[in-house]
Specification:
The structure holds 2 protein chains of 2 kinds. By secondary structure, chain A is α/β, with parallel strands linked by helices. Chain A is built from 25 helices and 38 strands. The N and C termini of chain A lie far apart (about 80 Å). The chains are: A alpha/beta, B mainly beta.
Chain lengths: ~850, ~110
């Protein structure tokens, strides 16, 4: 039996601790007597969450290991001392208290120190750094007597520090030398968006400010004097101008130092002395120091492998990061600044929402090199996967930029990831690792966290881990709860099947047979829509009215102040002058704000609930029908003018648009449906961005399906070519009914197709080869809907019982006196809060 | 606090609500399938629009609720509290049916 060797670890920060945990797990405690030396008076704590110390988390709350853990693992600790020198020949270190320790292997995890620039006055007692719990205690002590505080440095840590000052109740300033914030991670536009967002939160930012000296202030204790002649006064200053590796042991030991500091290490994290390793922020790999925790953890695991005589290499690290700074979501991925040769970039700014996104792609535009996200980091997980796995991008990479639709799963599907894809970079967990854990019995995110540690680091991968988990559970046949809501343990597709097969004619009948409770605003409209798709009954009957969502309930679109907009159908966008005049007259009579829609019709805004029936009586008398703008149903069929007038038109696009719109108007579906017909390939009707797009060719119609504009654009797919009129109608009948039967609630055709197993080929087989043998059924179902069409508004205005609901008050014939409008550009619009001179709706006291 | 008759029971369709003007204030009055009636404030505090009477009525976790038709927060019919934000309450007033009419007990003191 060989005796144990001695392993010393210099540093008990996050990386040093991760090394010890990995070492214990790898059984190194059986081969080595391990001693850890820590300069701070406590065991490792979570420095990443340091700012939580200001909002009440105790030092214990941040702690990463208890004294008991060290005892259990048999790891000796020396806290409050540091390694002062290394005698490499004698394999001994000398500690700051004079103690000498022998080693066989030494791991340096000494971390970094805050760099303080040589500015006159920066050594004043009101100036602090931001690194340790002791630093924070000093800031808190000084903060008690202070009113305002400033941070020198607008990088990631500087903004953390500014948040801390804000949490102390101080007026917070950030002084930044660079033109924008977080210049290492964010491009200029991203930095500016961040600046404006944190400005809104009350943090004052001063960029391009070169601090020359710190002197006595007049109103506050300190005055920062800037090179441009300006100044800023503050009671305390936190210096956060970068970090430097703690590599002073190079001096006495002769260990090689990297060009920009740090102990030089090879791919095994060995320094120039093979008995000595360096990991984390004190190590320089290829001359580069990594100032984030994830690469440090990676190095720790590599060093453990090397000590266990296993092969593992550090091959550089992904510096992507996602975090919340001062409440603002910020992320950067890979080459976010586009420094790679030939890199191209796309960006998207949503000023009102405060969202900025940029993607950097390679010269061919088929790989993601980097990205910047400010204000909303939802796509981070997907984009990171594209980047680190070198996955091919969609044909139009710019499509990635638009914010996803709420509730859409959207984006990258977990199935597309290779098994080697790294899902959690903090703990190096791959998709394969998660699948293995699921096969081993993990069924929840909690299970995965405890057995793989995935998603327990920065947490940026939580969404992706969950997706991989669900996909894997599903493929193993484990049930994932997809119940529509607490009242029905079924999906929409299953409910549709039950309604159709068991011929349920009402919500109550379905609820009694298959549900529980009373229902809610999720299942009621969903079932209401299914009943309408199947039986095409009247949506405002006694049974069906309580099921209808906001807009369907009053056959109009509710606006922000509770009034409605009215959209009559204008099939194909074709309208006679007489009808156009009627719309103008009605709008004028009721003082309705009037706007042309993108679907080639006219929207009239500002009608009160009691005005709706009167308005519709006039419209119906003039020959208009409801436009179903309020429904999850067929909206419009947009068209170009086609061969009737156009020099290039090949077929009568308006005629086909009219035929389609009049056929499918009134069809209720899982979500809204938009169509378009173009008379030639110039595509003036933009048919390829629609759920159903039709384009004329020399030989007939080409049919495109499942396109989408709006928030998540998707180019429609060509599913059939050169169809004649009747074949086109037959194909659209089958397509629509198949979608209505099988889609999830509120799932557009684009997302439905993306989730359809077998994709476009499968859909083509169902529609054109009748592979499921249901084509005749689908056509019959559609025929029933078409044959039973009636204008809902016509029926409603003719039924006094129905009209009882169209009143502002059940106990008064008056309109709502609280509505306020103002005029702008010759039209009426809702008054905004500032313009509501008096509190329009008296607040009532709660008895 | 006095009981005030608002309307006939049949003026409100089962499973829906209507707004009522009481002492210059707007209440949302709901009639359930079992002819229980409820009155809460009509003003949706998240949109500042007087619309809660036009929301979908249902139950969530055992509580009777209405979903705001604007941004879909839920308010409990029993006490006017908001499910998504417990600091928000639109107020609730006793309501019943007497001689075929819906009454609300509403008023100061």
């Amino acid at each position: 039996m060989t005796s144990k060797q001695t392993l010393l670890v210099a540093g008990n920060g996050m990386v040093g601790q991760h090394f010890l945990e990995a070492a214990a797990e790898a059984g190194l405690t059986d081969r080595y007597d391990i001693t850890v030396i820590g300069e701070e008076p406590r065991h490792a704590y979570d420095r990443v969450r340091l700012s939580e110390y200001f909002s009440g988390t105790s030092a214990e709350g941040l702690s990463m290991a208890s004294a008991d853990w060290f005892t259990e693992q048999g790891i000796a600790t020396r806290l409050g001392v540091r390694v002062d020198s290394i005698d490499r020949d004698g394999r001994k270190v000398t500690l700051s208290d004079g103690e000498r320790l022998d080693y066989d292997r030494l791991v340096l995890a000494t971390g970094s120190y805050p760099f303080v620039p040589p500015i006159e006055g920066i050594d004043r007692p009101e100036c602090f750094v931001y690194r340790t719990i002791e630093d924070l205690d000093a800031i808190i002590a000084a903060g008690g007597a202070a009113r305002c505080g400033a941070v020198l440095g607008g990088g990631l840590l500087g903004l953390e520090a500014a948040n801390a000052l804000k949490n102390l109740g101080l007026e917070a300033h950030v002084v930044q030398f660079a033109p924008t914030l977080m210049e290492v991670q964010l491009d200029r536009d991203g930095g500016r968006m961040l600046e404006s967002k944190i400005g809104e939160l009350g943090v004052k930012v001063r960029t391009e400010s070169n601090t020359r000296a710190i002197v006595d202030g007049e109103e506050h204790r300190l005055r920062l004097q800037f090179a441009d002649g300006g100044h800023l006064e503050t009671d305390l200053l936190v210096v956060s101008t970068g970090i430097r590796p703690r590599d002073e042991l190079c001096e006495t030991s002769g260990l090689e130092r990297g060009e920009r500091g740090g102990f030089s290490v090879d791919d095994q994290c060995r320094t120039s002395d093979p008995a000595i390793f360096a990991i984390g922020e004190c190590a320089a790999w290829n001359g580069r120091v990594f100032g984030l925790v994830a690469p440090g953890y990676q190095m720790a695991r590599v060093a453990v492998s090397a000590l266990a005589d296993e092969a593992a290499r550090f091959e550089g690290a992904d510096m992507s990061t996602k975090l919340k700074l001062l409440g603002v979501d910020v992320a950067s991925i890979g080459d976010s600044l586009g420094r790679t040769a030939g890199a191209q970039s796309y960006s998207f700014t949503d000023g009102p929402a405060g969202i900025y996104r940029r993607i950097v792609v390679n010269d061919r535009g088929d790989r993601l090199l980097g990205a910047v996200l400010v204000g909303d980091t939802t796509p981070y997980g997907d984009w990171l996967q594209y980047c680190i796995n070198d996955m091919p991008l969609p044909d139009q990479p710019e499509a990635l930029l638009l914010p996803g639709v709420e509730g859409d799963a959207g984006g990258l599907s977990p199935g597309a990831l290779p098994d080697t894809a790294q899902v959690c970079s903090c703990h190096n967990v791959t998709k394969g690792g998660i699948c293995e854990a699921v096969a081993g019995g993990a069924t929840t995110l909690g299970d995965l966290k405890s057995c793989t540690k995935a998603s327990t680091g920065c947490g940026g991968c939580t969404q992706l881990v969950t997706q991989v988990l669900n996909a894997e559970l599903e493929s193993l046949g484990v049930a994932v709860d997809r119940s529509i809501c607490e009242h029905f343990p079924y999906t929409r597709q299953e409910l549709f099947h039950l309604v159709r097969v068991e011929e349920h004619m009402s919500f109550d009948s379905l609820l009694q047979a298959h549900g529980k409770g009373l229902g809610c605003d999720i299942c009621k409209p969903a079932v209401g829509s299914i009943l309408a798709s199947c039986w095409n009954g009247y949506v405002l009957g006694d049974d069906t009215t309580p099921l209808q969502d906001t807009n369907d309930a009053f056959l109009a679109n509710m606006q922000k102040n509770g009034t409605y907009s009215v959209v009559p159908r204008i099939p194909g966008g074709e309208i006679t002058p007489e009808k156009l005049i009627v719309l103008g007259q009605v709008a004028k009579k009721y003082d309705l704000y009037t706007k042309i829609t993108g679907g080639q019709r006219i929207d009239l805004f500002g009608a009160t609930v009691e005005q709706l029936p009167e308005i519709w009586r006039e419209l119906i008398d003039a020959g208009f029908e409801t436009g179903h703008a309020y429904g999850k149903s067929v909206r419009t069929v947009k068209s170009c003018v086609g061969s009737t007038w156009c020099r290039y038109g090949l077929l009568d696009s308006v005629g086909m648009a009219l035929r389609l719109e009049n056929r499918y108007k009134g069809l209720r579906s899982p979500h809204k449906l938009k169509f378009a017909v173009s008379g030639c390939t110039r595509e003036c009707a933009e048919a390829q961005s629609k759920d159903v797009g039709v384009i004329a060719t020399e030989n007939g119609w080409n049919l495109y399906v499942c396109g989408n504009g709006g928030m998540r654009p998707r180019h429609a797919d060509l599913i059939a070519t050169d169809l004649d009129d009747d074949a086109l109608i037959q194909a659209v009948d089958r397509f629509l009914m198949f979608y209505v039967r099988t889609a999830d609630r509120l799932q557009r055709t684009s997302v439905w197709l993306e989730n359809l197993e077998g994709g476009l080929d499968y859909l083509r087989e169902v529609i054109f080869e009748d592979s499921l043998g249901i084509a005749a059924q689908l056509e019959d179902d559609m025929k029933r809907v078409v044959d039973t069409y009636e204008c809902e508004w016509k029926r409603t205005v003719e039924d006094p019982e129905r009209l009882k609901r169209f009143r502002s008050f059940v106990n008064s014939g008056d309109g709502d006196p609280s509505l306020r409008f103002v005029r702008e550009r010759g039209q009426r619009r809702p008054a905004n809060p500032d313009e509501q001179a008096v509190q329009s709706i008296p607040l009532v006291e709660v008895s | 606090m006095a009981w005030q008759a608002i309307c006939a029971v049949d003026d409100i369709l089962v499973g829906t609500g209507m707004a009522a003007l009481v002492g210059g204030h707007q209440l949302a009055v709901f009639r359930l399938h079992d002819d229980r009636v409820f009155a809460i404030g009509n003003l949706d505090p998240f949109s500042d629009a007087p619309v809660l009477s036009r929301g979908i009525v249902g139950d969530l976790g055992g509580d009777l609720v209405v979903a705001s038709p604007i941004y879909k927060q839920h308010f409990r019919l029993m006490d006017g509290s908001c499910v998504e934000d417990e600091t928000v309450n639109v107020g609730a007033w006793p309501a019943d049916i007497q001689d075929g009419r819906i009454r609300v007990r509403y008023g100061a003191g």
